[in-house]
Amino acid sequence: MPVARDVLAQALGPLIVVLGPSGSGKDTLMSHARSVLADDADVLFVRRAITRPADAGSEDHIPMSDAEFDEALDQGQFSLTWAANGLRYGLPRSIEAHLAEGKLAIVNGSRGAWTVIQQVFPSSVAVEIKVEPEILARRLQARGRESASEIEARLARASALTSGFVADAVIDNSGAVERAGSELVAYVTRMIGASSSV
């Protein structure tokens, strides 16, 4: 169950939450967008804290042990935390100041925590990354991080979370990363324009 701080009284800038099943390519697409938008200081690519060791094959996160995560939680370093697939995730408080200045932030989120993310960050919008089930299964197997039973559980969870979820934008990443990455950059750019005109 996600654990949230008090709801932010005012979060002016948009928080783009990239959602989708593990293996859908969220990290790859966000890395593409980060490289394209590297010169835009108004765009914050959020690094999540995760109770998982640093791994070149995974997202650029802040690795923490459970004890370190507990300590950071006790010190109030997170705006929001949740647990999924045996791991714990935390969004840093630095997001709040960035959004309060009317700037845009983008983060790799979780569909299971989406409702609470919306409550904590009222300006959040969801971008869902979709992949054909067969392709998703092959990607999970290729990265070699989970056992066959763990992959099966992830696929079942991905299917269950699809129902009843409505995203603000959907990007199909079943094909070329460049095409899907360009779609994400285009969406972020539109949101930057929309927020600066308010």
**Which whole number gives the mean pLDDT?**
85
Helicity, as a percent range: 40-55%
C-alpha termini separation: 35 Å
Number of domains: 1
> Would you tell me the structural class of the helices and strands?
alpha/beta
Produce a short descriptive summary.
The protein has seven helices and ten strands.
Description:
The protein has 198 residues and is α/β, with parallel strands linked by helices. The protein is built from seven helices and ten strands. The strands form two sheets. It has a five-stranded mixed β-sheet with strand order 1-6-7-4-5, sandwiched between helices. The longest helix has 20 residues, at 177-196.
Which labels suit this protein?
five-stranded parallel beta sheet, Rossmann fold, alpha/beta, 198 residues, five-stranded mixed beta sheet
Topology of helices and strands:
Blueprint: E1 3-4, E2 15-19, H1 26-36, E3 43-45, E4 49-50, E5 62-63, H2 66-74, E6 78-84, E7 87-92, H3 94-100, E8 104-108, H4 114-120, E9 124-130, H5 133-143, H6 148-162, E10 169-172, H7 177-196
Parallel strand pairs: 2-8, 2-9, 3-8, 4-5, 9-10
Antiparallel strand pairs: 1-6, 4-7, 6-7
Helix pairs in contact: 1-7, 5-6
